[in-house]
Design goal:
Length: 349
């Protein structure tokens, strides 16, 4: 079994690569990644010399290169995570999101179809997507199920929604064997510190302001990234072809409550007086088109495939804080250079 994992040097991708390389020594795992600002081979140091693992630097927006790669490597399966993934960047530069998330996905679909079309048996194109395609749960109740109509609001979520539609159209038009999962917000080790949790851990560490958008009342449903990687494994091996699975931890937090919890954990870990880090909270202009609430109903995945989250959020957050504090070199490394310039443009300083 030869599996292509795209975006394997990013946050979630590196956990998926690690899980597959460790759990399936009999498989060949090829990680294709462009190594944008978000991709970092440091994330995979522990498994990079395994003989069932290989890295290829490549760009999914290059359709000819993807076709050539599929022709040469004869993959049996694809787990597609490569994407531009940060909502704020999509607001600043939407076209890049169309190119990577939409055109890049179509290039992979074309390549898979071209190489597999005479023998779909045993092949699988697994597309990793997000709960943001469903839009926003305004006014309190309800959860996203697999049949919730798509209603994306940001250029990021619109590009992911579009890519999901293309994947389903390749299923319906060409019979390509596909599966899609839509997951809620992930947290854990190796997340680039532009996303809420690692950004705020880094800022608390450096005693810099914590920019809470709007009133901090937006709600996100948080899942430990290791549980997401395990869900992808379970769906890849046991999911029904053509189906969609929602993945989430039934773990909703208002941003401001999460930030306060994080501040208290950080005060304790850093030996600062209780309440010290909360003083860094700075309410700033809201994100444009900011979705109010996401909540995922993962009953289908739990019922059909027996997947459940392994860890309580408070415990996962402690482990995550410990990881960032023990890996400050990683944080300093990824926040130098290009990212710092972008951060300055966004927030000044
Ligand atoms: P990330 O930004 O950390 O990593 C993305 C990876 O894709 C990076 O390694 C980057 O170098 C690579 N990449 C970007 N453009 C590429 C290109 N043109 N060709 C090849 N590689 C390219 O993202 P993440 O948070 O790990 O998300 C991974 C996937 O999971 C994405 O598809 C995202 O939409 C989805 N997702 C993320 C979350 C979340 O909370 N982070 C939740 C649900 C779904
Ligand atoms: O500085 C900040 N201040 C702030 O208040 C940042 C970066 C975020 N926020 C808010 C915005 C959101 O309500 O925190 C919440 C979480 O923000 P992000 O970490 O940017 O995540 P989100 O926009 O919810 O999207 C994430 O989850 C779904 C990932 O980035 C996506 O890739 C994934 O698909």
């Amino acid at each position: 079994m030869h599996i292509l994992i795209t975006g394997g040097a990013g946050f979630i991708g590196s956990h998926v690569v690690r899980r597959f390389v460790n759990s399936y020594p009999e498989y060949r795992i090829t990680n294709l990644d462009k190594l944008t600002y978000a991709g970092n081979l440091e994330n995979l140091r522990d498994i990079e010399s395994r003989n069932n693992y290989r890295f290829i630097r490549g760009d999914i927006t290059d359709g000819d290169a993807m076709l050539e790669l599929f022709r040469k490597e004869r993959f049996d399966g694809v787990i597609h995570l490569a994407a531009e993934s940060h909502v704020d960047r999509s607001i600043a530069n939407p076209t890049e999101f169309v190119m990577t998330n939409v055109v890049g996905t179509v290039n992979l679909l074309n390549a898979a179809r071209a190489i597999w079309k005479d023998a779909y048996e045993g092949k699988l194109f697994y597309h990793v997507s997000t709960d943001e395609v469903y839009g926003s749960l305004e006014g309190g109740g309800g959860m996203f199920t697999e049949t919730t109509p798509y209603d994306p609001h940001s250029p990021y979520s619109a590009s992911k929604a579009s890519s999901d539609h293309f994947v389903r159209s390749w299923r319906d038009t060409y019979g390509l064997p596909v599966v899609i999962s839509n997951c809620s917000n992930n947290y854990g080790a190796f997340q680039f510190p532009e996303k809420l949790i690692p950004l705020f851990i880094n800022n608390i560490r450096n005693e810099e302001p914590l920019p809470v958008y709007g009133k901090g009342e937006n709600v996100r449903d948080w899942l430990w990234v290791v549980d997401h990687a395990r869900a992808i494994d379970v769906i890849y091996h046991g999911g029904t072809q053509g189906e969609t699975y929602n993945i989430g931890g039934h773990n909703e937090w208002r941003n401001i409550d999460l930030v306060r919890l994080l501040c208290s954990i950080m005060d304790r870990k850093l030996g600062r007086p209780a309440g010290e880090s909360e003083k860094l909270i700075a309410y700033v202009t809201d994100r444009a088109g900011h979705d109010l609430r996401y909540a995922i109903d993962s009953t289908k995945l739990q019922g059909e495939l027996g997947w459940v989250p392994s860890i309580r959020f408070e415990e996962g957050l402690e482990i995550t804080v410990d990881w960032y504090l023990m890996n400050q070199e990683w944080l300093d490394g990824v926040t130098s250079g290009e990212y710092k310039n972008y951060y300055r443009r966004m927030y000044g300083g």
